[in-house]
Amino acid sequence: MTINRYGLDLLLLLINRHMRFFVTILSYNERIISMEIKGEQYIVTYDKEKETIAFQGIFRLLDMKAYDPIIKLLQTVAERHPPLIYLDLKELSFLNSSGFHVISKFVIHIRDLKKSQLIIKGANDLPWKNSLINLKRLMPEIIFEE
Amino acid sequence: MEDILGHFVDISNGHDDYLKISFMPSNKSIHDAWQKNGLSADFIADYWDSFYSKRFNKLKKDYSKMRYGVCYIANELLENAMKHHCQNIKIPITISVYLYPYELFFYVSNCILKKDSELFKTYIQKLLHEDPATLYLYHVERSVSDDFLSKSCLGYVTLLNDYKTQLGWRFYSKSLQSDYVEVTVMVRLNINDNQ
Asked: Out of A107, B7, B37, B158, which could bridge B166 as a Cys pair, Cβ 3.0 to 4.6 Å?
């Protein structure tokens, strides 16, 4: 639902009862300001001003298909080609292997586009840091920050 | 009929310190049943925590890494079992965790169709004989261009690569004519309190 094409737009979608998540896109003059995907146990947000995608909560979705809205959000950000993209994982408390696969594919996407530097925030304190090291194998240029 | 692959060790007899959780398949959709995996994995991690925290310094970063690992392993095994379990057969999905001072053994059992078991065994041979870091790169890179591989296939790879576990499988069927095979996966996790 677009409230005003030339003003501040708020798009709110309920996807389906199985997936159980909401997508909110805030835009101005058809330019995205922020996006949010909210599930029962997690939130993924994108803040354009800070070029930050933040994962918060527990990600135990059924399979890669269940991650589709999150994959779309990541693709949208990657294809805007910002010089820096921050992936903030400080508040991510659990990620299953399908979720890790989603992040791995995002890293490959950024690597192959060759337009953005990817910075992962909170990487050094995560209890699953061993898994993050794999991302360096995919893209050695990734920067890990506190 | 029994077929053992990998490092499978049966310790179910002779060790009393264990936790076992079972759930029967129900008429609920997999979406509705899915939360049982996370709830069980969280409980197993809490259970482990209550016994091991006395021995470890809880403030150490590595302790939270180990606790996360216990939860992650239990969750991955249950997710796999639920995805592939034959829903129309009244055999439960079961997870057992055996606690030893310096290691944990996870056993997760479920039933699959016999016709699917050969493909699964081929995948297991790959897991057992190839470098897990290389397998991770292979699966992720291929999945970018191949939608079939978007099914992930990363669960066992991460257990080997990120948690340095040993894996083993037992395939058991009552008779050659049976359409189903009971699969038990074993994961052996080293607990190192010098970390």
From this structure: B7
pTM score of the predicted model: 0.90
C-alpha B94 chain-centroid distance: 11
Instruction: Provide the token pair at A112.
Output: 């192959």
> What does the block give as tokens for A110?
């950024």
Show residues of chain B in contact with A137, CB under 8 Å. 133, 136-137
- Of the pLDDT bands very low, low, confident and very high (cuts 50, 70, 90), residue B146 is low
Is beta strand A52-59 parallel, antiparallel or unpaired with respect to B18-23?
Answer: unpaired
Instruction: Among A134, A135, A146, pick the best mutation site for testing chain B contact (most B Cβ within 10 A).
Output: A134
- The per-residue pLDDT for B12 is 76
Residue in this structure with the two tokens 């041979």, named with its chain if needed: B125
Average pLDDT in the B142-151 region? 65
User: Which residues, given as ranges, of chain A have pLDDT below 70?
Assistant: 1-20, 29-30
The dihedral formed by the CA atoms of A17, A19, A21 and A26, expressed in degrees to the nearest 10: -110
Domain boundaries, chain B: 2-190
Q: Is residue A47 part of a domain?
A: yes
Contact residues on chain A for B141, CB-CB shorter than 8 A? 108, 138
Architecture (CATH level 2) of domain B2-190: 2-Layer Sandwich (3.30)
Show Cβ contacts of residue B189 under 8 Å, excluding neighbours closer than 6 positions. Answer: B69, B70, B73, B103, B104, B105, B106, B163, B165
- Evaluate whether residue A61 is within a structural domain: yes
